[in-house]
Amino acid sequence: MAFLDNNYLLGSDTAKALYSTVAKLPVIDAHNHADVKRIADNTPFTDPWELFAATDHYVWEMLRKRGVSEELITGKNTDNHAKWIAMAEVFPEFAGNPVYEWVHLDLRFLGFDNILLCAETAEELWQGCCEALAKDENKPQSLIRRMNIEVMCSTDDPADTLEDHERANAAFGKVLVRPTWRPDRVMKIRKPDFKEYLAKLGSRWGVEIKSLADLMQAMKKSHDFFAERGAIASDHGIEKPYDGAATDAEAEAILQKVLSGTAATAAEEDVWSSCLMRKFAELDAEKGWVFQLHIGAVRDVRDVLFDTLGPDTGGDVSDHMIDIVKPLCKFLNLFDDKLKTILYCLDPGHQASLATVSRAFGCKVRLGSAWWLNDTSIGMKRQLEYISSVDLFASFAGMVSDSRKILSYSSRFEMFRRTLCDVVGEMVERGRIPDHIAYKLVQMMCYNEPKKFFGLN
């Protein structure tokens, strides 16, 4: 088997046959961090660094691991060509990490099938990619059409105006880019800018926020606004689950304390978040939205990155010690059979617990794809094998890219579909699944069931 050939990740004839039936299916990406303004403006990418690495924290972290200076990764005084050359020099040392595969899959999408990125090919690929990216077929809107994306759900703050979504969808002639309601900032009552954010939110929705009721009035207006513009889901990035048991009175007391100028404690933030999580779930349940829970990211642990570059720059880790089951089960019991919920976890040690929770709570609670540090062929295979033994393949919520990089809608979905077909193909080869059932199953997991669950039919 040659590198990234037609048999890439496919270990049997059955796997190859299965993949042939799903390779060209449309992409349903229910969670990503798309630059919607760029898509709406159709601003072309000027060079391969901008396309492959400028927004990809996975690439940044691997470059740091190989000793590349920060100036050649995120530096504002270094041009993209120098950064590309620095990446190429160490890129062969990425082999074995999925970044090596993803970037080469992206290069293949642009037509560079047989050139490996390294010091010797850096200039050739730079020039070739720059020429390719100047073509209309490689502008953002054309790339999205070429990747056969049917739906992509961005990640958006409740104060956002969403005009870029309207412009993008007007260009596509359909609702392709859907907003997703992400109210994380209002949960973080201990952040120094919390009161400033409340003022921004209140101004956006014409509500002076002096109480919990005022806040929820603004959030309801935002939620309705998102729904009118095609939203079908909310998304919540939480380090640990909240049980939803905190009362409005408890949350009100904490809010008044903070508004008066006294900082909330960590315990009070948990109470506040517990109350708001319940209220947000109530809004979703009323509209039939999907409530997505991304659990377990311990963010910005490396001080030098946070202090110099800010949040979300490659300093996040997982923690297998987080208590997931008890608070999550309490929360799910509050909305049993009323709320469509997807569970994603960052630490692989939590996959088993979430699989059993999903199994216990019936058809409206689903497992999401192997997320973030697990969205590799190894991580996805392990998750899929466990799902099949505890939960149901047919109830899988589907792959998501979780990406800030536009070509990930091709490369990451391809990696998932190949891995899925390899896992199911092995089951067929071992006599565990009839082959005609396997074909239906992989198509359900790649396309039909996520589309149905998110209400896109």
Question: How would you describe what is shown here?
Answer:
By secondary structure, the protein is an alpha/beta fold. It is 51% helix and 7% strand. It has 20 helices and 7 strands. The protein has helices at 13-22, 36-41, 48-52, 57-65, 80-90, 98-109, 122-133, 140-146, 163-172, 184-187, 194-205, 212-228, 248-259, 266-287, 303-309, 325-334, 351-360, 377-390, 408-429, 435-453; strands at 27-29, 149-153, 177-178, 233-238, 290-295, 340-345, 365-367. The protein has a 4-stranded parallel β-sheet, covered by helices on one side. Strands 1-2-3 form a 3-stranded parallel β-sheet. Strand 2, helix 9 and strand 3 (177-178) form a beta-alpha-beta unit. Helix 17 packs parallel to helix 18. The longest helix has 22 residues, at 266-287. The protein is globular and about 65 Å long. The two termini are 39 Å apart. The model has no long low-confidence stretch (mean pLDDT 97).
Characteristic terms for this protein:
4-stranded parallel sheet; 7% strand; alpha/beta; 3-stranded parallel sheet; 7 strands; single chain; 457 residues; 20 helices
Helix and strand arrangement:
Elements: H1 13-22, E1 27-29, H2 36-41, H3 48-52, H4 57-65, H5 80-90, H6 98-109, H7 122-133, H8 140-146, E2 149-153, H9 163-172, E3 177-178, H10 184-187, H11 194-205, H12 212-228, E4 233-238, H13 248-259, H14 266-287, E5 290-295, H15 303-309, H16 325-334, E6 340-345, H17 351-360, E7 365-367, H18 377-390, H19 408-429, H20 435-453
Parallel strand pairs: 1-2, 2-3, 4-5, 5-6, 6-7
Helix pairs in contact: 1-19, 1-20, 6-19, 11-12, 13-14, 17-18, 18-19, 19-20
